[in-house]
Design a protein that fits this description.
CATH topology of the domain at 276-414: Aspartate Aminotransferase, domain 1
Strand content: 5-15%
Shape: globular
Structural class: alpha/beta
Mean pLDDT: 94
Largest sheet: 7 strands, mixed
Number of strands: 12
Distance between the termini: 59 Å
């Protein structure tokens, strides 16, 4: 059956495994080879040149920096789950983001006018400028703002993207749900405002279970696969799903920079895909429960969760997204209160990252977004009392009992706004 006709859950079990019957195996094979025999020198040279230019030669890999079959199977599977032509995997989410920026920098936009006919949509030859919407993951924000890659950035409000475009704009970058505030962006609106400029959407929080940005017009969708796609806190990876043209450019960057995904990591990621939907949806149910408990608690100032009443003002859950997800951001009185909560937990793990089978809690301003400027943190609502909770697969009642006792201790020690 064509994979387009299958449900997500069925695809997640079978995607990227099409050649297993031919190989005569049932479980995913793991190829750890760093190099491959070359029985025909001329053929080997042709293959190397093809892959150095972003192509693929599965039958003559030459060297694992150019192609690895275990990585390739995972890439095929993820592409199917995102409805993409191809996907390209990297050693980390930040390696994936860097590759997208470098690939965009190499592309020269052709002079054109957007469908709206607006003067703001006009572009001419050039390159070197990106438009980005905050908040983004702190590492992405830092990379873009640093200028390290030779790209200039204009930070735009969600409804101000078109006005921020320039003749040399090569990429528009957005993250939804946003890290760490869970703000939702209308992807279709972002694409329209981009006026033909390629749009990159970081969809790490949603995963392909809950959201498919490419179907809404985005050019690339990025995942820190370290998070939900890995799902067990034991692998670093990034992956970008896109069309053939952009995948080719991304592989060029990967070959040159060496930001390849290790085959063992690819094996673990692929092995985990069949349970991705089960994990995401179970964690989401727990998050719904805990978000409501937090909203009703006197020690909590505000809760940011798209599944709460008023938490999705644009009505994107149920249209753009198939559910609110399992991340919650909530605000307490101050840094001392937040620190006390994190230090008093007995079941939840105080640690950065997210999307694991166990529940993690962290303080964005002090940790994941520490490298973002104070002004930008304040503008994005990342204050000293903000905590980000990634709900795992534990019993929600147990999780709430642990979090509640930590909040009560913080209230006794620090006090509250009440």
């Amino acid at each position: 059956m064509p994979h387009q006709a299958l449900s997500f859950e069925t695809m997640a079990v079978h995607a990227g495994r099409e050649d297993l019957a031919i190989l005569g195996v049932h479980a995913l094979p793991l190829d750890l080879s760093s190099t491959y025999p070359l029985h025909d020198l001329a053929r080997g040279g042709e293959s190397l040149e093809l892959m150095a230019m972003g192509g693929q030669d599965k039958h003559n890999p030459v060297y694992s920096r150019l192609y690895n079959p275990t990585v390739g199977r995972f890439e095929e599977a993820l592409a199917q789950l995102e409805g993409a032509d191809e996907s390209v995997a990297f050693a980390s989410g930040m390696a994936a983001m860097t590759a997208c920026l470098l690939a965009a920098k190499q592309r020269v936009p052709v002079s054109e006018s957007g469908a709206s006919g607006s003067a703001h949509c006009a572009r001419s030859m050039g390159g070197g400028h990106v438009v980005a919407v905050r908040p983004l993951y702190g590492g992405s924000d830092h990379l873009i703002a640093s200028g390290m890659l030779g790209l200039e950035v204009s930070w735009a409000e969600p409804d101000g993207i078109r006005e921020a475009l320039r003749s040399d704009t090569v990429l528009v970058i957005a993250e939804t749900p946003a890290n760490p505030t869970l703000t939702l962006l209308d992807i279709e609106s972002v694409v329209v405002q981009a006026c033909g400029v390629p749009v990159l959407v970081d969809s790490t929080f949603a995963t392909p279970v809950l959201q498919n940005p490419l179907k809404l017009g985005a050019t690339m969708v990025l995942h820190s696969a370290t998070k939900f796609i890995g799902g067990h806190g034991d692998v670093l990876a990034g992956v970008v799903a896109t069309n053939v043209e952009w995948a080719t450019e991304l592989r060029k960057v990967r070959v040159i920079t060496g930001s390849v995904l290790h085959p063992l990591a690819a094996y673990l990621l692929h092995r985990g895909l069949p349970t991705l939907s089960l994990r995401v949806r179970a964690a989401q149910e727990g998050a719904k429960f805990i978000a409501q408990k937090l909203k009703d608690h006197p020690g909590i100032k505000e809760v940011h969760y798209p599944g709460l009443e008023g938490g999705d003002p644009k009505g994107l859950v149920g249209t753009q997204m198939r559910g609110p997800g399992s991340l919650i951001a909530f605000e307490v009185e101050n840094f001392d209160f937040a620190s006390t909560v994190m230090g008093s937990l007995e079941l939840m793990t105080p640690a950065v990252s997210l999307g694991s089978v166990d529940t993690l809690i962290q303080h964005p301003a002090a940790l994941t977004h520490r490298v973002v400027s104070a002004e930008s943190k304040a503008h994005s609502g990342i204050g000293p009392g903000l905590l980000r909770l990634s709900v795992g697969l534990e019993n929600p009642e147990d999780l709430w009992a642990d979090l509640e006792q930590a909040i009560v201790k913080a209230m006794a020690k620090v006090g509250t706004h009440a």
